[in-house]
Amino acid sequence: MVAACFTGARAQNADDIIQKHIDAVGGTDNWNKIKTVKMKGIMSMGGMEINITQTVANDKGMKMEIDANGMKGYNIITPSEGWIFMPGMEKVTKIPDDQLKSSQDKINIKTGQLVDKSKIGKAEYIGTDSVNSMNCYKLKITDKDGNVQTAFFDAVTYYLVRSEMKVKVQDDEKEMAVNYSNFKKQPEGIVFPMTIGTEQGDVNFKSVELNKPVDDNFFKPADSDPK
Predict the structure, then answer these.
(1) How far is CA 222 from the centre of its chain?
(2) What residues contact 170, with CB distance under 8 A and at least 6 apart?
(3) What is the pLDDT of residues 42-96, one digit of tens each?
(4) Cβ–Cβ < 8 Å for 58, 110
(5) pTM
(6) Which segments of the chain are extended strands (E)?
(7) Contacts of 87 (CB under 8 A, 6+ apart)
(8) Which fold has domain 14-212?
(9) pLDDT tens for residues 169-210?
């Protein structure tokens, strides 16, 4: 990314930017009606197409399921525990507490898309920048648990187009960035990014199901999984 001082840029109020973002993607009332989200898509990585299914039940859990040529795995995050089982792993592995803490935004779709002000501890406007040739407002956002991210909002649409943060990987801290694009308005009135890009590759989601029932046991490793 290249820093940009675009025409008409001026000091912005972080709260105003967040509110304009919330309004742009559907508004608080519409988002508060969303309790569960199930998205299906495909990630292209190393010439292989990997089927991805991500299910979120707000404040209960997130499960990311993958299917790579019949080799299946998953990543589960809940408020108190998390597990990972990927192709090539011999058994289900419990996610360490520090990694679990930094992943809590994944269990609430509103938190991940920064549309729930009650989850934000502090927001600071820190300037402007450019993301994929888009002029953006840049905010430093700290959640109520102390997790920090830098969020980039398109200065025209106010959509969240990029998020940068540090995550724990074993004993090291690693910079992680997520890009959001291909925004689509759903019949329920909210706007979702249908393409999510990471350093592993882009996930292109093909379908979104909202407010479908999800059993609590769905967010636990199956008894048949190797422990």
Answers:
(1) 25
(2) none
(3) 998 777 889 999 999 999 999 999 998 888 999 999 999 999 998 878 899 999 9
(4) yes
(5) 0.86
(6) 36-45, 48-57, 61-68, 71-77, 82-85, 93-94, 120-131, 134-143, 148-154, 160-169, 172-185, 191-198, 201-210
(7) 66, 68, 71, 72, 73
(8) outer membrane lipoprotein receptor (LolB), chain A (2.50.20)
(9) 566 677 889 999 999 999 999 999 999 998 888 999 999 999
